[in-house]
Amino acid sequence: MTEDQLVSIVTANREQEATRFREVSLHQFLNSLHLRHQQDFRYLKEFPLNALHHELPKALAQHRFIPKSGIAGNAWIGSGQTTTGTHFDLFDNLLFQVDGSKAIWLAPPYAISRQQYSRKYDRFARLATTQLAELPDAVRIEVQRGDLLFIPRRWWHQVQNLTPSFTVSGFHYSRTEILTRAVPEYLRHGAHCINPLRRECTCHV
Fold this sequence. Notes:
The protein is of the alpha+beta class. Helix content is 18%, strand content 35%. The strands form three sheets. A five-stranded antiparallel β-sheet has the order 3-4-12-6-10. A five-stranded antiparallel β-sheet has the order 8-5-11-7-9, with no helix packed on it. A two-stranded antiparallel sheet has the order 1-2. The two termini are 29 Å apart. InterPro entries: Cupin_8 (IPR041667), JmjC_dom (IPR003347).
């Protein structure tokens, strides 16, 4: 069912390296995840579940792991050893590991100073140049198939796939947070997209 669908995959650690995308068929991408010789670590990030299969959102909703007030339905699918750079999200995050395993480093907000923030732009997140594994306040957690992890807003985290991995992630927030955080971020992102002089970011090459 996915043979003709084209998707843009990330071919590097977009939070800490140059942003690079490659367009491939979803079918080809999914079938290549277990190939051991692949070295250009590839990641399909923030992909709508209903674009994978129309029954997936309904099936996962039965788990009721994301509150009704949340934004649910984003898939993160990647080969082994693909990584996500150090960042924090502006909203509480629930991560559900559908298949495979990954390591997640977590650190409290005070673990990284503003001087260590990255200038690179990311929607609904803030990036840092620091490697969390090097910080004494960071903890390492492994999630396996069926695990659910709560990541509080503004907690730093960094992720590495230990095997080919399929993750569903969703943010959630209150009505007050929609006005105080979500709306300003949507406006900020809109301004970023129409700015012809936009600086380096995770969303454009």
